[in-house]
Amino acid sequence: MSTTTKRASGPKRAGGSRRPSGPPADEPRPGRDHRLEVLRQMLLIRRFEERCVELYSAAEIRGFVHLYIGEEAVAVGVGQALREEDAVVSTYREHGHALARGVPSDAVMAEMFGKVTGCSRGRGGSMHLFDAERRFYGGNAIVAGGLPLAAGLALADRMRGTERVTCCFFGDGAYAEGEFHETANLAALWQLPLLLVCENNLYAMGTSLAREHAQTNLAMRAASYGMPAWTVDGMDVTAVEAVARRAADSVRSGGGPHFLEARTYRFRAHSMYDPDRYRSKDEIARWKARDPLVELEQRMRAEGILDDPATKRLEEDVTSEIDAAVRSAGAAPYEPVADLLRFVTSTTGSTR
Amino acid sequence: MNTRQSAGTAEATRTTYREALREGLREALRQDDRVFLMGEDVGRYGGCFGVSLGLLEEFGPDRIRDTPLSESAFVGAGIGAALGGMRPVVEIMTVNFSLLALDQIMNNAATLLHMSGGQLNVPIVIRMTTGAGRQLAAQHSHSLEGWYAHIPGIRVLTPATLDDARHMLAAALADPDPVLLFEHGSLYNAEGVLDGTIDAVGLDSASVRRPGTDVSVITYGGSLPKALAAAETLAEDGISAEVVDLRSLRPLDDATVLESVARTHRAVIVDEGWRSGSISAEVMARITEQSFYELDAPLRRVCSQEVPMPYARQLEEAALPQPASIVAAARKAVA
Lengths: 352, 335
Known about the structure:
A: 352 residues; B: Rossmann fold
């Protein structure tokens, strides 16, 4: 096992690189535009979810809603390493993964509203976002249930001889499930093009890592399956991007499955129903001091590629996108109840 | 092993249920590059029950894929491969083991199409052995296909004849949705003549395997030979039993069942599953809902005794539907 904490705060490259294919794949793309895009994506996720909280209080959104706030650097950092043709399998805390994958924010918001224009036609809700066109395969609310599925997507790619990568997000809770261990073994045994990204936010709902794992060094255990396994600071988007690129490129070039543990923290409770009695205020405050958005902003300011007007523009841009998403979700129709039984099977009207 | 017989049509072939299944697999693998078989010991071992014997040599280890003993991972991988454009056939050794993969079958395969608002099809076929009769005791012998038939979004097939064993797979693979195929363990060695004039079967209809006028015996899978044997015995007593093979437990073909009941006005349902909450209960409910006034006698059923399947032969036999118990139930129905 090697522990990667590579920080690419160093070399500033001249903007407008003449190399058509960009920088070497194991380095984040430098440059102001790329950094701004990363920041914009993280900000969009943050503001989107903050709006979801408001809309939940206003009873526009119901059901379970699991917020990703605090963990944005993982979805966005890993997302930079993936290509359009790659696949993503996610969990029930997946608003960030979906938005980072490019699922339109209005389709995600409409899904939260339960509208027919939602990315799952209102049949999934917060926990089950899907977008086949962008190869975003959900939205799995059985902890670890997405892992075997991701292995299968990777198997299909391998059997068909493509160079695609399947990226599967899951948490430290899933790591305790048999499905994680079965999948890790299968993927390593068959050398599947699978990128396993464990978002270790230290809690499986209310149970802390130390209370659920006899050995809490997750990367070391993953390495024992015979795959490269690295740990990265999940609050540092630049570090996440760097290690994810290295891993994804290796997976893509036939290196078999790779495991990344991103150490992160959710700033909010597990779900809207969670009174959060199991974490101390001090602990939460310590992690909030490492807010990935604030860290990125500060770094960009220090590097001279972000200033107040640019921040303001970003905020306005993101706010107007979310406003539009909320407006269109509010105005969109519900699926008629007459269509309740659609999509149970492919044959409309089937009794199955 | 396939002995071509000159008797009957030129195409008629003497074969077994096992070989018929294998031929179905072989044909599917030959016709479609996307089709592959995976499961525990399907390759070098030749399949736990010998169904895939010889396929590894013909199609290679990429398409006849031995898996680790991890039902959840390889069934889930089959689902993922189906999403990724393949046409996987996944073999699970027995229905009892399929419970280790129930999460994937229920929460992913059966659910993804609906949960994604129609975006994701899961064209997977999952084959498994079901049923008792071989003294394999309480963890290899149960008939849980009725449980699976409870789940919307999947098709549940129970081939009971050589023709269905031979041809159901092709139809299952043509279905864009998940199909579960239950092979009764006591049928693998069943011998007979494959009807060479049949080159495809449908999946939606039940089938009348023996016409009759006095009582409908409605069954499926491994109980079909028992029901047919019972019908022979009943015929000797002058009772004409019509034997209906459900073939598919989801969807259930109500029409064929109700038509049969409309002819006989009496019915016995034979189901190797346990009685409580069983598919037999579902069949009875549908008859009473839709054909209550056709009935001249209370519906009856013959199910497995509500006990984990015991090892000892006499106990196992007593736990299962048998021709004699079917005969007794039919006699009561026509009394």
